[in-house]
Specification:
With about 425 residues, this protein is α+β, with helices and mostly antiparallel strands. About 45% of the residues lie in helices and about 20% in strands. Helix 3 runs parallel beside helix 8, helix 10 packs antiparallel against helix 11 and helix 12 runs antiparallel to helix 14. The longest helix is centred in the N-terminal third of the chain and has 19 residues. The mean pLDDT is about 95.
Length: about 425
Amino acid sequence: MRENGFDIHHVKLDNGVKVIATPMSGRRSVVVGVWCLSGSAYEPDDKIGISHFLEHMIFKGSRRYSAKEIVTTIERLGGSIDAYTSKQETCFHATVLGEDIDTAIDVLSDIVLHPRLASADVEVERSVIISEIREAWENADSLAQEILPAVMFMESPLARPILGSINSVRNIKTEDLKEYWAKNFVSGNFIVAASGALDFEYFVSKVAEKFSDAKQGALKRELPPGKSKEGTITLINYDCQQVHVFVSARTFPFADERRYELALIDAILGRGSSSRLFQKVREEKGLAYNIQSFSELYTSAGLWAVYAATSPDNLTKLLESVLHEIDALRANGISERELEDAKSFVRRRLLLSSESPWNNIARAIEADIHLGRYIPLSETIERIVSVKPENIVSVANEILNRERLSILILGPVKKVDNLGFRVDEASVTDVFPWILG
């Protein structure tokens, strides 16, 4: 398939490993990544945080590389190597010059297929991860972001913190990590992708060679969607300087075709400095330094949210302003001009992002994980452009009516105007029990 001047290639190897590549002419660099379909939402109930723990441990050494050699082998080439863990996948990736792609594939394949997982390293990294958790949760901003999924995905593994808890990390043993790796890092769970300066046929041949000894297997994943605290203000009195506010709504899984309308609703209300909320709340009323919206879509559920931080004195005004703009979109709709501006914003952002090798493979991976197929950029743009004003209003009325909204407030506030919502005064531990240990 050829799109936006680039060839998009998809191949499934005989052992089940998927290979995706986007050669990009005129580039000197290439991004190579190995995605394993193993994330925090698929962890055993008594081992939360094990995906992230394993991510750390994989960098502690492999069959042919020591911990230091993993990074020096890539960095002596001027490149970089890193990883991340999310709700539904763990990724290990490197950026190097195209001429060094063999080395990147070799390092990445060895660390994911043959990690050392030594007990001495486990104890060292356990301490590092506990420090990481403490640092993240001592910051009110990041703590509020961690609490949001717990409010929006109650009774679902999506609610869990990716880092785990201090108590769970303390109790994860070397054998637990080895067992989790053996179960999840199998051929059918791997997607190996690259974008930039590469030859596709050569890339496939190297991946086939290096992943030939991947353990055979694949896992069928179930992800309960859970439920949210609809029509409720969750008020958490917390000792910090500002009040952190999320006005959120449960949406739908990634595969839902309404994601195109949601992308435009997001652009209209809160994505970018020209959005309604930024202009009204920040520019006209000065109620927050920054206000923005975002969406997160998974295989079984999704959310859309507005985030802002403000002073306690401005909290009610900020909430009233946000709710007013949401209600106005539902009641009054959108003009053809504003919709065209939003379409232009989304379309051009997509095209600009396609100039990035990383964004190219990230889009392909996301579609493969959630749909099992690649979505051409041209198809996405065509769907965006075809949205009508009445489609926007229909989706907005469905997901953004006040009965379905959930508001999370964390900060130095003991009482709040209910604004027609139920108010649930809670402690951090009530909503986010993982902080206890």
